[in-house]
Specification:
CATH architecture: Irregular
Shape: flat
Helix content: 25-40%
Order of helices and strands: EEHHEEEHEEE
CATH class: Few Secondary Structures
CATH superfamily: IHF-like DNA-binding proteins
Largest sheet: 5 strands, mixed
Number of domains: 1
Number of strands: 8
Structural class: alpha/beta
CATH topology: HU Protein, Chain A
């Protein structure tokens, strides 16, 4: 099965004129829950489900801990997790301090291998009504 997509209708601004156009839009095939992911991984490696859960839990903790210390973390052929900050702007550099930081954000940069593999994906059109940009119309 390929990557599911739907037909999507939206209004676009073309030199001041609103025009209706159609495009492909990703269709969410559903959430794979953590326990189900671990079961799937168990079937494709020599680890038991509980070993997979333990390894993933430790990986998550290590990534969180390292990101909170300002490190970027490369996870094999998956990619790189790296921290950035959302912060207020101020007029004077003396006014930059921890209280101007709104939050830390975790970003992900996929590896070249992951991007290349995704670019080889086949696509399947989901047979359903066209979705509209201002909600779903039937």
């Amino acid at each position: 099965m390929g990557f599911p997509f739907i037909k999507y209708k939206r209004k676009v601004n073309n030199q001041g004129n609103k025009e209706e156009k159609y495009m492909a839009k990703a269709y969410n095939a559903g959430m794979i829950e953590y326990k189900d992911l671990c079961k799937r991984m168990e079937k494709h490696c020599t680890l038991s489900k509980s070993d997979v859960e333990a390894a993933v839990a430790e990986l998550a903790w290590q990534i969180e801990n390292l990101l909170s210390q300002g490190h970027s973390v490369r996870v094999g052929d998956l990619g790189i997790f790296y921290p950035t900050l959302n912060a207020q702007t101020v007029d004077d550099p003396k006014d930059v301090h921890p209280n101007t930081i709104k939050k830390i954000v975790c970003n992900f940069l996929p590896s070249k291998e992951l991007k290349n593999n995704l670019n080889e994906t086949k696509f399947d059109l989901i047979d359903r009504d066209i979705w509209y940009s201002k909600g779903i119309e039937k």
